[in-house]
Amino acid sequence: MSSSNTGLHVVLGAGPAGTAIAEELAGRGLRVRHVARGPITGAPDGVETHQADLSTPEAAIAATEGASTIYHAVNVAYHLQVDLMPAIADSILSGAERHGAKLVVLDTLYPYGEADGDHITESTPWSATTRKGRLRAELDRRYLDAHESGTVRTVLGRSADFFGPGVLNSTLGGAFFPPALTGQPALALGDINLPHSYTYIRDVARGLVTLGTTEAGDGRVWHLPTVPAVSTAEVHRLTEDLIGRPLTVDVLAEAKPYGPFDETFMREYAEMFYQHLIPQNMVSTAFEDTFGVRPTPLREALADTIEWYSP
């Protein structure tokens, strides 16, 4: 058995992804430490919790002491990402290097920009022109360069828009499911008749833990298990079928404040709004064929999500 299965798995970040990763690891009977800036509540039995500000190498090194595998699912307020994420990335790399730990990074589709939205694979060019897209591409190159140089064993898993239990701040999250369940107007963005990829949060966790417990994927980017894109309108139709009532949907044609997405967020998100105006089909067949992990069927994932959101 490899050290990735017998050692300590340290999960950084307690948002929906970090929480799902910790739960997945614990469910596999692995040793887990869950690290976040604030207190962590409701951790699975046996999971050690730790508070740390990971913006400095010293804090990251201390928080990851003894790690064999580190999962980077740290995020910050959307309008602060460009300013804060580079230092956090460097700190986490410092921790992984110090302890000889493997680094598993949760990533986004941002580096691709508007390239080939109909069929986004791991070979799609990194064509980002936005600030946040260029930032993600720059950070990804740092992670991959660390692997190439032999400094830190690294692997990246990319996800499309999250949805699922615990996912609130998403285009298919807290501004959609609660109002859908109560008969209020639910949020949608852009052209809802275009195909758009959504990744189930538990598939994100399963995919990243798969990458963290095998060496077969090291040194490259993988697309985490995601069903083939359907239109957001089809997601709405499936939701209507599951809840047994028609939806009322507010469709925003541009980034403007709505519900939990305030002016600060939407002003920062405006440069990324193109994602809802072009096809966006993230293909995960390379991961599925290599590791034998399939995405949860969309209807099943939506049903699980609706159950979690239901009063």
From TrEMBL:
Domain NAD-dependent epimerase/dehydratase: 11-214
Name assigned to this protein: NAD-dependent epimerase/dehydratase family protein
Superkingdom of the organism of origin: Bacteria
Organism: Phytoactinopolyspora halotolerans
